[in-house]
Design brief:
66% of the residues lie in helices and 3% in strands. With 389 residues, the chain is mainly α. It has a domain of 256 residues. Keywords: Membrane, Transmembrane, Transmembrane helix.
């Protein structure tokens, strides 16, 4: 076999491995979260259209502030409604015959609400949830390769990310969380590639998903390399902030009559939760039924995380540290006041910064937890055993 043909086969193998891994990991992440929380459809029939369900999102009748995240659901409904009645009935008949998705993830929708348009909308949203997770994992893969990780190390890092990320959905989760994380990671990736036009377009588009997305360009301002002029940084920031506030006005306008308040304050509940020692030894039944996984603040996860990030922080570049503080501190303040207990998914705007810091220590993951000397002894022992054989 000549070198050119061999390289083609190896390239195809790498593509196949990454493609399959992205599908498997995205499936595991979305499956674990949706099996636990679904599309928040477990509400009583009385007042169902004014609850936190996807039905109320697509109708724009959900309570504030959740209705501010309804843009994508309303757009999906518009797509379904624009289909011809014949095509709607054809899709609905197929959905009703093979309705495994509804039984698995949104069985709580009452039959009177399960119309052809609603059923098609649910499937459109589910498809984009999975697609968003696949593309997010692809961006994480690209980031790892950009930072010099080998192919094998990148696959390990990707698997590690997919293990930790679902644990952030400890207290709840919504469909727009998966869309948001794709937008945040994509914007970060484009800044690192210096593709500012795609970055700005991504920010403008995904800012319709959630009213707090304006924090993304504020943090990205600190991610630029040194040779990017301050004038250019400020120009892009002002343009991106303008896009965010236009979309923010759009997503928050017209819901004055909806129930609920402009924001939900949980500072008291959060203080009591974090002062309770029992909060640090919790286990959650999230990943699979009957399998309880430790919370992020449980010592089983917290202690290894501190050890790893302490090492990774020392290896990380200065601009990544600045970006981390710019991304994490604002959402941490919002989390303390308006989040709910350990609902870590609310810190998602800082996840790309956390990943960039983690990448700085990913190549030395084995040495961090086993020690260089221990690794050398293990390698020598393996070599001796092969020689003896």
């Amino acid at each position: 076999m000549d070198v050119k043909k061999k390289n083609r086969i190896l390239a195809f193998c790498r593509f196949s491995i990454v493609f399959v891994l992205l599908l498997v990991l995205a499936g595991n992440i979305t499956n674990s979260v949706l099996l636990k929380f679904g599309f928040r459809d477990d509400h009583k029939l009385d007042g169902y259209a004014q609850s936190l369900t996807l039905v109320s999102m697509m109708e724009g009748t959900a309570p504030r502030p959740y209705v501010y995240r309804a843009t994508f659901a309303k757009a999906a409904k518009q797509i379904a409604a624009r289909l011809s009645p014949e095509l709607q009935q054809k899709f609905f008949k197929s959905i009703s015959r093979y309705d495994s998705l509804r039984h698995s993830y949104f069985s709580g929708v009452p039959d009177e609400y399960w119309t052809p348009v609603v059923a098609i909308t649910y499937h459109i949203v589910y498809f984009f949830v999975v697609l968003s997770m696949v593309l997010t994992l692809l961006v994480v893969y690209k980031l790892a390769r950009m930072h010099g990780l080998t192919f094998g190390q990148t696959l390990g890092f990707l698997a590690g990310f997919s293990i930790v990320y679902p644990l952030t959905f400890q207290q709840g989760g919504y469909y727009y969380d998966f869309i948001e994380i794709l937008g945040v990671f994509s914007a970060c990736f484009f800044v690192l590639k210096r593709w500012m036009i795609p970055c700005t377009l991504v920010i403008a588009l995904f800012s319709f998903n959630k009213e707090t997305f304006f924090l993304v360009p504020l943090a990205l301002f600190f991610l630029h390399e040194r040779d990017v002029s301050m004038r250019s940084r400020i120009g892009w920031l002002l343009l991106q902030i303008a896009c965010c506030f236009v979309s923010r006005h759009f997503v928050m306008n017209g819901y004055d009559a909806n129930s609920g308040s402009f924001i939900e304050v949980h500072a008291k509940e959060n203080l009591l939760f974090w002062l309770n020692p029992g909060s640090y030894v919790r286990f959650y039944n999230l990943i699979a039924k009957g399998i309880f996984t430790p919370s992020l603040q449980n010592p089983l996860i917290l202690v290894p995380s501190i050890v790893f990030f302490r090492h990774a922080w020392r290896q990380a570049g200065t601009r990544y540290k600045r970006y981390f503080f710019a991304a994490f501190l604002p959402v941490a303040a919002l989390f303390m006041l308006f989040g709910y207990t350990d609902e870590a998914r609310n810190l998602s705007l800082a996840f790309p910064a956390i990943v960039l810091i983690a990448l700085a220590g990913a190549r030395e993951f084995g040495q961090i937890f086993s020690g260089v000397a221990s690794d050398r002894n293990h390698a020598v022992a393996q070599l001796d055993s092969k020689v003896d054989a």
